[in-house]
Write a structure and sequence with these properties.
The complex is a heterodimer. By secondary structure, chain A is an alpha/beta fold. Chain A is built from 5 helices and 5 strands. Helices cover 42% and strands 19% of the residues of chain A. Helices cover 46% and strands 12% of the residues of chain B. Chain B contains 16 helices and 10 strands. Chain B has a 7-stranded parallel β-sheet, sandwiched between helices. Classes of the chains: A alpha/beta, B alpha/beta. The A-B interface holds A 3-4, 6, 25-26, 28-39, 46, 49-50, 52-55, 82-84 and B 15-16, 19-20, 22-23, 27, 85-86, 88-95, 97-98, 101, 104-105, 110-113, 115, 117.
Chain lengths: 132, 382
């Protein structure tokens, strides 16, 4: 049997715009993923701990309030400090072009902006999951 | 991570190792059996509490507050929350963490979301093994939240020591409708959202139903003196706390229960009742009903007190040992069933019998019962 992939969909910081996150969560569900959604207003520490406890394959961070360049690298750092090295980290939402290199340098595998194709997100996720 | 490293880290209290172990057990990987084997000697200590009830009753919020209360009492808490898997995609949205933000920041709490993965009893197949891992990891209390339950999702009672059924006001006749199912499995009851109209009425309806069931033979009291492994009759004598409860045991009027949200102490007046002799096996547990408003943290202290009293009751009457025996029997049965089925399907499959007989049944040249007889005769020698 194919292993169930688990994905944590997270919202960081003071960002209440979660419709996009919910749409993505639903798309993952419909593609057969088990999706953990933690709700809004999460600190990087909380998201990291949730990712660890839930032992997810994928961490999908949604940001529409502009704090991504600070909070996402923080989150990745916390995970690294805990020894988590087999997690696929994705970012999505309203993220300016010029911030993308920063996020990728921090360890984000891909960034999906407004209008991103849900099927493309699913395909990219499946192909880039690090754990076997 | 290989299994030796994982087990070493697990025993050193590494939460990542625990999380990975749960994944292996949930996925039934080849290492899963070895994990359970290696950690089994450390199990059997935690108080396992099941929280069940209809969707929207506030189970997750209540679990959050109940866990916080146990933390205040100095207990470490493991939480397992089960949500349904989509029957179409096989995916799931596991949203129980949303309502558990208060306790999840606490390092003394570990929470894991599980998808039901097609299992219909209110929990997933692997839930028992996941609880076993949390137990071995050393959590004092393990709370298992079921999927939103209707009438027949009663499997939690086979896993939990203390089953808490959570209901809400305004269910009206539904309370009547479900009394043959989920209401039978509660060791403690919570009427949540008790700030809503009709809470007292709901409490009264449950109380009346419980009293009716309590009067009959067996009924609600599903642990009569002669049930189980016989640890009851020969088990330990009831201790001081149980005796104290017996002294205070009395009528469980609706007025008394209705006051529980405001004055938790009044609820402790009833926990156990006495029937006939002083034989510990004859002491039965009359499930208490507690009003709660989980979002405002009301009544939670009293509810946790009832849970602890139930644990004390189990221990002092020998039922704790009976439950261990029951769990062992159920687990063996489950594993034997699973393995025998797998072996038979493999044998019948590889011999081509499965396909041949499937076709034969489909085109009506044989019937399913004769087909199964043939498979068992050929591959089991009977």
């Amino acid at each position: 049997m194919e292993r169930k992939l688990r994905v944590l969909v997270a919202k960081l910081g003071l960002d209440a715009h979660d419709r996009g996150a919910k749409v993505v969560a639903r798309a993952y569900r419909d593609a057969g993923f088990e999706v953990i959604y933690t709700g809004i207003y999460q600190r990087p520490e909380q998201v990291a701990e949730a990712a660890i406890q839930e032992d997810v394959d994928v961490l999908a961070v949604s940001s529409l309030a502009g704090a991504h360049a600070t909070l996402v690298p923080q989150l990745v750092e916390i995970l690294k400090a805990q020894g988590v090295d087999d997690l696929l980290v994705l970012a999505g939402g309203v993220i300016p072009e010029e911030d993308i290199p920063t996020l990728k340098a921090a360890g984000v595998a891909e960034v999906f902006g407004p209008g991103a194709d849900l099927d493309e997100i699913i395909r990219f996720t499946r192909e880039n999951v690090k754990r076997v | 991570m290989d299994i030796t490293t994982l087990l070493e880290r697990f025993k050193n209290g590494d939460r990542r190792a625990l999380a990975r172990a749960i994944t292996w057990v949930e996925n039934g990987t080849p290492e899963a059996a070895e994990l359970v084997r290696a950690t089994f000697p450390d199990t059997g200590r935690a108080h396992v509490i099941g929280i069940t009830g209809p969707p929207g009753a506030g189970k997750s919020t209540l679990v959050d507050r109940v866990a916080a209360r146990f933390r205040k009492l100095g207990k470490s808490v493991g939480i397992v929350a089960v949500d349904p898997t989509s029957p179409f995609s096989g995916g799931a949205i596991l949203g129980d963490r949303i309502r558990m933000q208060r306790t999840l920041a606490d390092p003394g709490v570990f929470m894991r979301s599980l998808a039901s993965r097609g299992h219909l009893g209110g929990i997933s197949i692997a839930t028992g093994d996941v609880v076993s891992l949390l137990d071995a990891f050393g959590f004092d209390v393990i709370i298992v939240e079921t999927v939103g339950a209707g009438q027949s999702e009663v499997e939690i009672m086979g896993l939990a020591h203390t089953t808490c059924v959570v209901l809400i006001p305004g269910m009206g006749d539904d309370v009547q409708a479900i009394k043959a199912g989920i209401l039978e499995i509660g060791d403690v009851f919570g009427v949540n959202k008790a700030d809503r109209d009709g809470a007292d009425r709901t409490v009264m309806e449950i109380e009346m139903m419980l009293d009716l069931g309590h009067m009959g033979e067996g009924g609600i009291n599903r642990w009569p003196a002669d049930a189980g492994a016989g640890a009851g009759a020969g088990g330990p004598q009831p201790g001081a706390a149980a005796m104290q409860r017996l002294d205070r045991a009395g009528h469980h009027s609706a007025e008394e229960a209705a006051g529980t949200a405001d004055s938790p102490r009044s609820a402790s007046a009833h926990a156990a009742e006495r029937h006939g002799t002083a034989n510990p096996g004859d002491i039965s547990w009359r499930p208490p009903v507690t009003k709660t408003v989980a979002k405002d943290d009301q009544g939670v202290e009293a509810l946790v007190e009832r849970m602890n009293e139930h644990l004390q009751f189990l221990r002092e009457t020998g039922r704790w040992e009976q439950l261990k025996h029951r769990d062992a029997a159920a687990k063996l049965r489950e594993l034997i069933t699973a393995r025998v089925v797998r072996i038979m399907m493999e044998r019948a499959g590889s011999a081509g019998d499965l396909e041949r007989l499937t076709n034969a049944v489909a085109d009506r040249s044989t019937d399913p019962y004769s087909a199964v007889d043939e498979v068992l005769r050929k591959h089991l020698g009977r």
